[in-house]
Design a protein that fits this description.
The chain is built from no helices and 29 strands. It is mostly beta strands and 257 residues long. The strands form 4 sheets. It has a 15-stranded parallel sheet that branches.
């Protein structure tokens, strides 16, 4: 076993497929380095792995297997270079302050069983997450204010679940097209400072006493779109009706409280 995981580096530098089912320490290792054309699949029985830095070189891949969680620890930077890929079938956690330098526009894909968790003000920069498959999840957690960034694509496809569950608040500052289910959890603050356009069967789901604020409204552009109020706690429509007044309400409003 590894007794000092904080200085331990796991390096995979040879071409070919490598499946990890045991052996990596569950406490945070210093660096997980994938290079030389290595194709690494993490499928360790312990379920949760932690690393300060994840480095994916050109032509190399890492796959986070189903039921596997890889946590990128606070205040470090991870990098996906060139054609280096991260395939997420389990859970990738970007802890508060962690930055993912996504240098490949097609690098990061989230499969139907995959989830990205953004804790606090963790962020993705250079290029947005390239692909969310139906069934994938993007979840905002933590207790530090977060501005939505490149972890959230300009158009979120159908079948994806985006959840705002950050206890301090999440702010949108660039427009998004929502074809997914976008949920704001009970008691959470969601500030809309650019346009959200719901279309092609998208849904905004406001749970309990969530708070909607900001300077822009939500637009519902098709008859198959939905605004749904759920949960047991009372809800008050925001002062300027941000939930419903971005033009005609072409879809359906459901009150399920």
């Amino acid at each position: 076993g590894v007794t000092n995981a904080g200085t331990f580096k796991a390096q995979f530098t040879s071409p070919g497929n490598i499946t990890i089912t045991a052996g990596l320490p569950v406490s945070a290792i210093n660096n997980l380095n994938i290079s030389g054309g290595a194709q690494v699949i993490l499928q360790q029985a312990s379920g949760l792995l932690r690393t300060n830095q994840l480095s994916i070189a050109v032509g190399s891949n890492i796959t986070i297997g189903v039921n596997q969680t890889l946590r990128l620890m606070p205040s470090f930077t991870s990098t996906a270079l060139g054609s280096g890929n991260i395939n997420i079938n389990g859970t990738l956690i970007l802890d508060n302050g962690h930055a993912l330098n996504n240098q490949n526009p097609m690098a990061v894909s989230v499969g139907s069983t995959g989830e990205i968790q953004i804790v606090g003000n963790a962020n993705v920069f250079m290029n947005q997450i390239s692909s969310y498959i139906s069934g994938a999840k993007l979840t905002y957690l933590g207790a530090t204010t977060k501005t939505i960034g490149l972890e959230c694509p300009a158009t979120i496809p159908a079948g994806v679940l985006v959840t705002v569950d950050n206890s301090v608040g999440v702010t949108l500052v660039s427009d998004r097209i929502v074809r997914c289910v976008w949920t704001i959890k009970n008691g959470r603050n969601f500030t809309i400072n650019d346009t959200i356009t719901v279309n092609m069967g998208g849904k905004i789901q406001i749970e309990g006493s969530a708070v909607i604020a900001g300077t822009f409204n939500i637009i519902y552009s098709s008859a198959s779109d939905t605004l749904e109020f759920t949960g047991t706690n009372p809800y008050t429509i925001s002062a300027f009706g941000r939930e419903v007044t971005g033009g005609a309400m072409n879809g359906t409003i459901i009150v399920d409280k």
